[in-house]
Write a structure and sequence with these properties.
Number of domains: 1
Number of helices: 7
Shape: globular
Low-confidence stretches: none
Mean pLDDT: 94
Strand order of the largest sheet: 3-2-1-4-5-7-6
Number of strands: 7
CATH superfamily: Vaccinia Virus protein VP39
Order of helices and strands: HHHEHEHEEHEHEE
Radius of gyration: 16 Å
Distance between the termini: 61 Å
Structural class: alpha/beta
Oligomer: single chain
CATH architecture: 3-Layer(aba) Sandwich
Length: 214
């Protein structure tokens, strides 16, 4: 069966620039084996750019140059692979517990020749004493209070958890405030990404951990 790959929208052309061919290759993989492996629903294929790849990649502006980023529960490589494509300066680590998915992620990273991406199999909790980064991100994994318990132990002091959320972001942040404070968060806010590239910008909840005292 021929896979119908959605063309890149104007916003993707402007956002990815010279990195667009690699982003297009990623979309083609998602539309093919991403669907057959159950990572992307068939009905999602026509909206892969707007709802998934571009929607995720635009959060790259949350990360400082040459930083390490951990993507928890990476699944189809979203947001991790999308961010790694547009930001080759970042050292991106994809954490995913399911073997079938980590095998797919490793194959996809190899096909895209992304030398700034490392795949790890396991749950976030298993890496609390093994892996850390200035930034930890996640998309559609859990509500903010539960997500924070998994992700914040991976965040280095002075770093941030950047959680992709939909329109519920402000409400989730309000509900999770006490939990976040107990986990060492000193500042949190809802941030907007992708204005000018997406018809509906992406929202993240950014939670910063206090820097180490000198």
């Amino acid at each position: 069966m021929t896979v119908e790959i959605p063309p890149a929208p104007e916003g993707a052309h402007r956002f990815f620039g010279g990195r667009l061919p690699r982003a297009e290759a990623f979309v083609a993989i998602l539309a093919d084996t991403g669907v057959s492996h159950g990572l992307i629903g068939p009905r999602e294929v026509p909206i892969l750019w707007e709802r998934h790849v571009l929607n995720c990649a635009v959060i790259e502006d949350a990360f400082a140059a040459d930083s390490r980023v951990i993507d928890v529960g990476s699944g189809a490589g979203l947001p991790g692979i999308g961010v790694a494509i547009v930001r080759p300066d970042l050292d991106v680590h994809l954490v995913e517990p399911m073997l079938r998915r980590t095998e797919w992620l490793s194959s996809t990273v190899e096909q895209l020749a992304l030398d700034n991406v490392t795949v790890h199999r396991g749950r976030a909790e298993e890496f609390h004493d093994q892996l850390s980064a200035p930034y930890v991100t996640a998309r559609a994994v859990a509500r903010l209070d539960k997500l924070a318990r998994w992700c914040l132990p991976l965040v280095e002091r002075g770093g941030s958890m950047v959680a992709m959320k939909g329109r519920s972001a402000p409400e989730e942040l309000t509900a999770a405030t006490k939990v976040l404070r107990r986990l060492g968060v000193t500042h949190s806010q809802v941030s907007t990404h992708g204005e000018g590239f997406l018809s509906e910008p992406t929202l993240t909840v950014n939670c910063s951990k206090g820097a180490r005292s000198s």
